[in-house]
DNA sequence: GCAGTTACAGTAACCGCTTACATAAGGATT
DNA sequence: AATCCTTATGTAAGCGGTTACTGTAACTGC
C-alpha cells in the first residue's frame, strides 16, 4: 500500500514545485524567507493542486489548534446573538475557528472534556459555563482563558469582562420606588449560580434598604433567564390562591421580561398601570414590546469583542489587565410608568 | 531532547497500566474487546493521570475530526438562537464538536477555507452561507453536508431541510387583502440570494395576482433580514418626499418587523389602524411586540435538529432522503388588524 | 582575500494517536 | 490429535505537517 489517503499533501506540492516540504511549510506559515521565484511557483502549484493544509496534522506538529472555544450553559436566550456575533467577528478576523459548546453538568462522565487544552488554544467561559473546580484546574495548568459575565473566585486570577450590575440596578429600583411609588417589587431572578443575577439581587436589596422597604423573600421568583420559565413561574405565582400583593416586577433579563409581560397580561393586569415591569440587557426587541420596556442597556457585543481580544492578547503574550467591567445605562421607556423615552 | 511536550500521552497510560498503546486505544474507542481486568486498570490509570486524548492526533490518525461545521452568512438575527440551540443539542449528544463560522465573500483569499473537509466531518450550510460553485466542488468531492433553509441548485443532489414558504405566504397576504382590505402591500425582503426571501416573494406575488392587484416594484424594499437595516430603509422610504402610498407591510422575517414597527411609529403611523404589519418566523418576542405580531410560525429548532440528524445519518451511512420541507402555520395576532389571537 | 554574516533550502525526527498485521492461548470441531 | 476459530494483546508503520539542525552560496567589512 502506498498512500491511504487520496488528498493532496505538502509532499505533493513540494515535489511538483521542486522544493522540499520544509520550504513549502515555511512559505505557508510565512515564518522564514523564501525566494520570490520559489514563492511564485508555490502559489501556482498550490492552487493547481487545490492544496489545503490538513488542520489536524498542523495542530499535532505545531501544538496549537487555531481554534478557541466558547463554553455556555445553554443557548436559550436572545442575549446570545450579540454575544456570538461579537466573538465570531474577532475570532474569524484572527483566522481562528470557533467551537461552541454547552456544558451539561450531568454529562461529564460520558466523554473526555469536549473542549479544552487539546482541542482549543484558549477558552471563553460564559457565566456558569464551568464549575469553580474545573476553572481552578484549567487555570493551574496555565491554560489561556477569559471569563465573560463572571468574575473568578477570589483565589484565582483569571481575566474577566463583565458589566456594571449593582449600582445600575440600585438606580433602576430606586426609580421604581421614588418616581413611581412602587413598594412591593418582585425580583424575577436568573439561575442560581448566575453571577449577574446575584449582583442584580444585591443592587435590588440595597435599593430596598436605602428606602426603608423590608426585603420579602416571597417576592423572589426564579425565572432562569428564560422566557418560558419566567412565564410559567409568574403564572403559577399569580394563580396559586395565596395572592401575594405586588406592584412591580424587575426581571433580571429582557428575555424573561417577555414571559412576565405575557403572564401579567394573561391574568388581566395592565402594565404599567397595575404592575410596572423593568428588565435588563436592552435586547433588540425591548423598544417594541407592549409596552416598550424600561431596561438597562448592557453592551453585550462589546463585552464579547473585548473578552475575545483579551484572550488573543494572552495567546500572543501581550500584557492584559485583570478585570474589566463595562458601564451600563438605564433606558427609560413606558413599562416602568414613564411617558417619554430617555436615558440615564 | 526526550519529550517536547509535558502532557500525558497514551504511552504514559500504557506504561503505567502495563499494556500496549494499542490496547489503550482500543479500550478508549471501544472498538475491540479488552479483558475486564485490563479495563479496570485502565480506568484507574487514566483518571489518576488525568489523561485526555489529544484531539488532533486522533484526527490525523483516524482521518475523522469529530467536529461538524456550521456555515452562516452572518449572526445578526434572533432567529439564530433556536437554530443554534437545535444544532448544538444533537451535535453534543453525538459527542461531536460544533464549529460555527460566518462566511464573508470578500475574505476568501486571505486564508484556506476556514472550515471544510480537513477541519470537519460534515457541514451544515445555512442559506446563502456558500456560493453554488463552492457547493458543487465540495459535493463533487463527496463531502457530507446538508443545506438548511436552502435547496440545492438543480444539478446537485444535496440533502436539504427547509420550511414551506410559498403557500403560507400566499395565504398570509390574501388574508391582508381579503379580510383587511389591503391593496398596497410593501414587501420588506431579505438578502438578494436568500432563498426563503425569494420564495416568500413568489408567494407574495401570487397572492397579488390572484386578487387582481398589479405588482408594484416600488413596494419592494430590502431590509436584509436585519432589524436596523429594515428600520433605516423604511425610514428613508417614508421620508424621501415621493411618498408612495401603502397600507400594509409584509416583512420577510420577524426581526426586520421590529425595525418596520419602529419606523412606522416614528413617522406617526398607527399599526394596524393606518398600516398593517405581518412577519415571518414567530420568534419568541412576536406575541409581545406592540402590537402583537401576526406572523408565520416556522419550526426553526426542528429544522435545525432534523438537518443535523440527517448530517449524522450521512456520516453513519444510513439512508437519508432528499429534500424535507417542514410545515408552517399562520399565527394571527393584532398587527394585521385582527382582534383575537388564533392559528390557521 | 578571508572570516563572519545572511539568505535560502534540505533532511529527518518528531507530534500523539489509529490500525493492519502478527502472535499467543484456549476452546470447539471433526 | 490436528485444525480452525475466537479472544486478547503487541509491534510498528503511518497520518500530514513543523522545525531543529545543517549546508551552501552570496554578501559583508576590513
* Shape call of chain A: elongated
Give the number of DSSP strands of chain A: 13
- Percent of residues of chain A in helical segments? 25-40%
Radius of gyration of chain A: 26 Å
Largest interchain contact: A-B, 58 and 58 residues
**Distance linking N and C termini of chain A:** 73 Å
- Sheet with most strands of chain A: 6 strands, parallel
* Whole-number mean pLDDT of chain A: 89
Reading the helices and strands of chain A in chain order gives HHHHEHEEHEEHEHEHEHEEHEEE
**Low-confidence parts of chain A, pLDDT < 50 over ≥5 residues?**
107-112
- The assigned structural class of chain A equals alpha/beta
| Total of DSSP H or I helical runs spanning 4+ residues of chain A | 11
What is the beta-strand fraction of chain A?
15-25%
Major sheet strand order of chain A: 2-1-3-4-5-11
Oligomeric description of these chains: homodimer
Any overview of this molecule?
Two copies of one chain form a homodimer. Chain A is of the alpha/beta class and 344 residues long. Chain A has eleven helices and 13 strands. Chain A has helices at 10-17, 21-29, 36-48, 55-62, 80-93, 132-140, 166-179, 195-210, 227-239, 254-266, 300-315; strands spanning 67-72, 97-102, 122-126, 145-148, 160-163, 185-189, 220-222, 248-251, 276-278, 295-297, 323-326, 329-332, 342-343. Chain A has a six-stranded parallel β-sheet, covered by helices on one side. In chain A, helix 1 (10-17) crosses helix 3 (36-48). Chain A is elongated. Chain A binds a DNA duplex (30 and 30 nucleotides) through residues 1, 4-5, 7, 9-11, 19-26, 28-29, 31-35, 38, 53-54, 56-63.
Amino acid at each position: 500500500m502506498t498512500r491511504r489517503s487520496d488528498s493532496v499533501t505538502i509532499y505533493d506540492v513540494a515535489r511538483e514545485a521542486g522544493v522540499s516540504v520544509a520550504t513549502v511549510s515555511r512559505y505557508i506559515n510565512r515564518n522564514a524567507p523564501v525566494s520570490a521565484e520559489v514563492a511564485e511557483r508555490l502559489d501556482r502549484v498550490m492552487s493547481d493542486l487545490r492544496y489545503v493544509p490538513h488542520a489536524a496534522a498542523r495542530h499535532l506538529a505545531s501544538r496549537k489548534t487555531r481554534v478557541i472555544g466558547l463554553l455556555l450553559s445553554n443557548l436559550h436566550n436572545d442575549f446570545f446573538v450579540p454575544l456570538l456575533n461579537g466573538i465570531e467577528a474577532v475570532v474569524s478576523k484572527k483566522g481562528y475557528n470557533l467551537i461552541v459548546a454547552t456544558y451539561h453538568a450531568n454529562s461529564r462522565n460520558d466523554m473526555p472534556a469536549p473542549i479544552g487544552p487539546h482541542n482549543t488554544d484558549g477558552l471563553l467561559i460564559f457565566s456558569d459555563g464551568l464549575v469553580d473546580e474545573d476553572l481552578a484546574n484549567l487555570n493551574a495548568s496555565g491554560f489561556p482563558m477569559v471569563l465573560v459575565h463572571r468574575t473568578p473566585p477570589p483565589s484565582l486570577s483569571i481575566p474577566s469582562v463583565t458589566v456594571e450590575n449593582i449600582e445600575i440596578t440600585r438606580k433602576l429600583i430606586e426609580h421604581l420606588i421614588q418616581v413611581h411609588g412602587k413598594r412591593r417589587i418582585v425580583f424575577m431572578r436568573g439561575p442560581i449560580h448566575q453571577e449577574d443575577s446575584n449582583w442584580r439581587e444585591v443592587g435590588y436589596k440595597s435599593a430596598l434598604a436605602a428606602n426603608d422597604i423590608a426585603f420579602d423573600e416571597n417576592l423572589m421568583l426564579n425565572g432562569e433567564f428564560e422566557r418560558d420559565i419566567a412565564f410559567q413561574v409568574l403564572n403559577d405565582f399569580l394563580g396559586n390562591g395565596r395572592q401575594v400583593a405586588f406592584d412591580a416586577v424587575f426581571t433580571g433579563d429582557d428575555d424573561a421580561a417577555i414571559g412576565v409581560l405575557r403572564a401579567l397580561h394573561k391574568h388581566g393586569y395592565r402594565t404599567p398601570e397595575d404592575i410596572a415591569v423593568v428588565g435588563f440587557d436592552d435586547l433588540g426587541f425591548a423598544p417594541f414590546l407592549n409596552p416598550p420596556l424600561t431596561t438597562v442597556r448592557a453592551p453585550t457585543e462589546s463585552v464579547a469583542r473585548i473578552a475575545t481580544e483579551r484572550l488573543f492578547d494572552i495567546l500572543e503574550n501581550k500584557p492584559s489587565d485583570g478585570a474589566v467591567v463595562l458601564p451600563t445605562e438605564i433606558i427609560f421607556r413606558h413599562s416602568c410608568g414613564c411617558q417619554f423615552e430617555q436615558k440615564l
